[in-house]
Amino acid sequence: MKVKKYDNQKLGVLIGAFSPVIGFFLYGAGWAWYFAKPFNYFLHDIFLAIPTWRSSIITLSLVFNLVPFFFFIRTNRNKTARGVLLAVFLYIPFVVYFRFWN
C-alpha cells in the first residue's frame, strides 16, 4: 500500500490545535461585522468579560476542526484525521472547565 504524503498523527494534532484558533478569529470577525463592533470589543467585552459565553465560543471554535478532519478523511489520510480528532479531545477539558467551574 502506498504511503500518503502528510499522513501522520503529529501533523494532525498540530493542525487540530491551531484550527480552532483560526475558527475563533473567524467567528469573532463575523460577530464583530454582524454587530458593527470592533473585534477588540468581542475579545475583551464578550469573550473575556462574560464567563457564561466562554465555553460556547470555544465550542463553536472547535467546530472549525471539521474542515480539516473531513478533508483528511476524504483524501484517505486517516492518521492525520485521527490526530485532528485527538486534538479535539484535548480541548474538551477546557470546555468542561469553562462550562462548569468558571
Task: Please give a quick description of this structure.
The protein is mostly helical. 80% of the residues lie in helices and 0% in strands.
What does this structure look like?
The structure is a single chain. 80% of the residues lie in helices and 0% in strands. The chain contains 5 helices and no strands. Helix 4 (66-74) packs antiparallel against helix 5 (78-100). The longest helix has 27 residues, at 9-35.
> What is the N-to-C succession of helices and strands?
HHHHH
* Intertermini distance: 49 Å
Number of strands: 0
Rg is 16 Å
Tertiary shape: elongated
**Helix-and-strand structural type:** mainly alpha
Low-confidence stretches: none
Q: How many domain regions?
A: 1
Task: Let me know the largest β-sheet.
Answer: none
Count of helix runs: 5
Task: Break the fold down into its secondary structure elements and pairings.
Layout: H1 9-35, H2 39-48, H3 51-63, H4 66-74, H5 78-100
Helix pairs in contact: 1-2, 1-3, 1-5, 3-5, 4-5
